[in-house]
Specification:
143 residues; 8 strands; alpha+beta; Pnp Oxidase, Chain A
């Protein structure tokens, strides 16, 4: 038997169920956990869209989360409601503009016309984080 990396599941993740996809479409906030260079966690609230079993998160290019992901792409995401917890793991892939139009449109629809590609700082750029689900730890039921 060959040892495996515990962070790499042997089987592909199960796709999100229809009730979970509905919940992810309605929830407005998630918490993104990245790993700092010293190994400590960095947790921050984010706006997101979920499409095709992938989380999409817009952020400023100079943010701590982007710097952390550039060094270690493993992340966790969770919704705010602890009564019906949703927790996913994956590896974040940062994208520079131009962003996929379907993702931009999904952000605009979810967040009242907000354009995920517009920088918040005059001298900044925007990054779109793509996080395909590697593993669902919880999908709405507390253990």
């Amino acid at each position: 038997m060959t040892p495996t990396d515990p962070a790499t599941p042997a089987d592909p993740p199960s796709p999100a169920t229809p009730p979970l996809r509905d919940r992810l479409a309605e929830e407005r906030h998630a918490w993104l956990c990245t790993v700092r260079p010293d190994g400590s966690p960095h947790v921050t609230p984010v706006w997101f869209v979920f499409r095709d079993d992938t989380w999409w998160i817009g952020t400023d290019g100079g943010s701590v989360k982007v710097r952390n992901i550039e060094k270690s792409p493993r992340v966790s995401l969770t919704l705010e409601d602890g009564r019906f917890p949703v927790v996913a793991e994956g590896e974040a892939v940062p994208h520079s503009a131009p962003f996929p139009e379907t993702v931009r449109a999904a952000f605009a629809a979810k967040y009242d016309g907000w354009d995920v590609s517009v920088p918040h700082r005059q001298d900044g750029d925007r990054i779109l984080l793509e996080v395909p689900v590697r593993r669902w730890l919880l999908t709405g039921t507390a253990q």
